[in-house]
Amino acid sequence: MKTGSLKAGIKSLAGSLLYHARFFDLVLKRIGSTRYLVLMYHRILPASEQGRLHQEGMYVTTDTFERHLEFLKRHFRLGSVQDLVGVENPAPERQRPLCILTFDDGWSDFYDYAYPLLQRHEVPALVFLPTDYIGTGRRFWSESLRRLFEGAVTAGRQAELVAMVKRRFPGLPLGEDVAAVLEALTVHLKSCSAEETASLLRSLEGVAVPATPPPDFLTWEQVHEMRASGLVSFGSHSCSHRMLTSLGAGEVRSELSDSRDQLRAHGVVGDEVAFCFPNGNYDDTGVALLSEEGYACAFTTRYGWNPVTADRYRLNRVGLHQDVARSDGLLVYRLLYPLIMRR
Ligand SMILES: [Zn+2]
User: Fold this and answer.
1) Residues 273-313: tens digit of each pLDDT
2) What distance in angstroms lies between residue 88's CA and the mean position of ligand 1's atoms?
3) How far, in Å, is the centroid of ligand 1 from the Cα of 237?
4) NodB homology domain: from which residue to which, for each copy (predicted)?
5) Is 22 exposed, middle or buried (0-12, 13-18, 19+ CB in 10 A)?
6) Whether residues 89 and 192 fall in one domain
């Protein structure tokens, strides 16, 4: 057994024991409405996509997601961002903690797989849109890279691709198998310039030209339809999805104001607009500008629950993805950990 799966097995077992010993219920009862939970999802994919080199941290399968919905409905008040109004004054009676589901990036699989399940279980969700990508065929560079790797595997040319990457980044610990190389390369490229990344992608296309798949992101029609259902609301994830901390103040301001104006022009947000930091990176400048631009709140990727008095521009979330939440035991462990460790 690999160390990773052994660790996951232990966490899953610990989570199951804590759940069956009713420890989880007791903790939630104690929390009541003094803290709330915001969950972070990215993609919801059918199990058939699992072999296709998707980053573990980016998806849960449809089966896992439906199990999450059933579990969450049993233990939480599932609400929307509007439920944060007045949350600082917890109800005197013990309520179940509030939980808000958020989805980053506006992937088209949200419409195909998550939305029907949310409707079936009547669970609200908040989706953050990077407006430059919605309704276009544009892709994140990380997804273009993944598709190149997937194409090379399909063509039986993965060894060639891996060798090429290793020649280009001789000092980088890339690992051996194709999934490990892709993972390490994706992490490394986050700190490279857009030009460097684009040049690498062009050179890898010499090994494997990917097929032209359908667009990765939602269309505005899908956004309108889901908004009209009253179940799904939307917020800004900037325009370009660049990390705000890598931009000058002027550029940050345009990312904030232009994305908000686009969402308003499409009629998919009200007066109060929520923001989500691309890649989770934020600093004081970004926070000050968000407040100046009139945003209602902003979500980070920092792992934790939120006390009701939390700074609205630096809200914690608990990220859920297949490798950390594929069983109820793992899910319980994932939700309890920041409470027990006081994060
Ligand atoms: Zn994102």
Assistant:
1) 999 999 999 999 999 999 999 999 999 999 999 999 999 99
2) 28
3) 7
4) 97-343
5) exposed
6) no
